[in-house]
Amino acid sequence: MVSEGASVTTAMVAVQFLEVGGDTLMKSATKDGMSIYIFVFYSNLFALFFLLPSTLFYHRERAPPPISISIFFRIFLLSCFRTTVQTLMYTGIGYSSPTLSSAMVDLVPAFTFILALISRMENLNLKQHSSQAKVIGTLVSIGGALIVTLYKGIPLISDSFQNIEMGAIGIYLSVKSDWIIGAFLLATASFCLSVLFIIQTWIVKDYPEELVVTTICCCLVVILSAIVALIAEGNSNVWILRPDKKLLSMCFSAIFVVSMRNTVTTWGCRIKGPIFVAMFNPLRVVIALGLGVLFLGDNLYLGSIIGATIIVIGFYAVMWAQAQEKHMISENNFQPSSLAPLLQNKSMDL
User: Fold this and answer.
1) Which superkingdom heads the taxonomic lineage of this protein's source (predicted)?
2) What is the pLDDT of residue 52?
């Protein structure tokens, strides 16, 4: 029987694959003139059409617990950050490049780690080996992702020696003003994504209904993104949908990115905490690299192999730390119950 931890890990890895695929379709559609604001609105609207019947079907026999004002306020706050993250991330990619986006998203584990410590969702005791491994693993994983993104090295598998986007810092310098704007937007989006993980954990620890939280949040994001799109887009023609690449990217994002990703990450935050969920973001660089080599004929460089190996080492360290902490908690919970009968018998003998 598969353990709960293994299930969360598998689901989180699958989500990263889906997100890379969704980003690829979105980037291709925006090159054809699709508005980012319209994309965010329709992808969440279509996701709501998928989430609402799924939630009703899941709770057909067991009604979810009532939502308090406090929980609803947290969900509204979560929807504000989710709208902000999607808008800033996609806009930042438009100003800069997907490579810079990958580099900035690699900062999410560090941001989340700091915020989790501040909010006391994670305890850090540097005298314990598990805490040391968690800190070192997080830093190592971020470093490996940055190596994959910024260092190219010699080609290992190459059909041609054409320049590709990975490691092409000169491209950034040639469009310095747009690069600065894009970097600021992406850095802000990465920080907001870290705050989003903290808020998700804050919600599901008190209201452990992932589908309900995701559906309500998606409904609020639809409203908020519609307001943003109406303000940002003056052309009414951009709202018209046609059976083309744009519609395909919206539908894929709605089902596999907005619906499944948000549900899985919310579930992961409840089971494992925000740092565990954030640690999977650097995997996107490795996944994008692998898919590019296998299906797009991209070149494979030494820097990519080194960075991917370092990311795996960092992941292993964090996974080991999580397992050690879980083992320590289970031992602490077991000791009082095992001693209770002995104490009871001793008192009876007296």
Assistant:
1) Eukaryota
2) 94
Strands 155-157 and 300-301: antiparallel
C-alpha 326 chain-centroid distance = 23
Q: Is the pLDDT of residue 346 over 50?
A: no
The token pair that represents 59 in the structure block: 């709770």
With tokens 């994002």, the residue in question is 253
Q: How confident is the model at residue 233 (pLDDT cuts 50, 70, 90)?
A: confident
pLDDT digits (tens, 9 = 90+) for 100-143: 666 677 778 878 888 888 888 777 777 777 778 778 877 887 77
Q: Among all chains, which residue has been given the structure tokens 């490049």?
A: 97
Alpha-carbon distance of 144 to 255, in angstroms, equals 31
Q: Is the pLDDT of residue 95 over 90?
A: no
Place of tokens 């003003």: 177
Cβ neighbors of 236 (< 8 A, separation 6 or more) are none
String of b and e for 266-293 (b: at least 16 CB within 10 Å)?
bbbbbbbbbbbbbbbbbbbbbbbbbebb
pLDDT of residue 175: 46
The mean pLDDT value for 333-340 works out to 49
SS3 70: helix
The sign of the CA dihedral 84, 90, 95, 98 is positive
Cβ atoms of 146 and 103 within 8 Å: the answer is: yes
What Å distances lie between residue 259 and 104, 217, 333, CA to CA? 24, 11, 36
Are 106 and 191 in contact by the 8 Å Cβ rule? The answer is no
pLDDT in the model for residue 221: 96
- Smallest Cα–Cα separation from 139: which of 151, 147, 129, 127? 147
- pLDDT tens across 209-232, in order? 999 999 999 999 999 999 999 998
Q: Is 303's pLDDT higher than 70?
A: yes
Please name the amino acid found at residue 343.
L
Q: For 96-153, give the DSSP string.
A: S-HHHHHHHHTTHHHHHHHHHHHTTSS---TTSHHHHHHHHHHHHHHHHHHHHHH---
